[in-house]
Amino acid sequence: MTLSGAKAKWLLGGAIVSLCLNLFLVGGMIAGRVHGPMGGPEGKGGGMVMATVPHDLKPIIREKIKARGPDFKIERDKMREIRVRVADALAAEPFDATKLDAALTELEQSAGTMLHLAQQGLSQIATELTPEQRRQWADGWRKMGPRP
Fold this sequence. Notes:
Blueprint: H1 5-29, H2 31-34, H3 47-51, H4 58-66, H5 69-91, H6 97-127, H7 131-144
Helix pairs in contact: 1-6, 5-6
């Protein structure tokens, strides 16, 4: 099926927006894996997840996240390869929208896998914490929620 005109533009725009949102969320959760340990020197930063962690728990959570790094590296490397395919499809002449759509779909699936790995990791980390540590972490998540 080939789409053209306004419908194709809306579909492509929606796919790009969806991809950007997924990458933003995944990037926030794994920023430390891309730009050094936890997003900066001596574990400063760390994206959205570390922003939810109370100061006293940061060393504990940081070490538990670090232990899960190899799983993220495999998928991150895969995403880099897919981004090259997206770039190649964008630059190709003649332009092939089907090839671009396939590469974007593959990138979205990979981003979903990264998010899934992050969620599994957070769940596993939670099982390794004491009830008090989980309560403290929950308070951090609540602070990140909507403001009244």
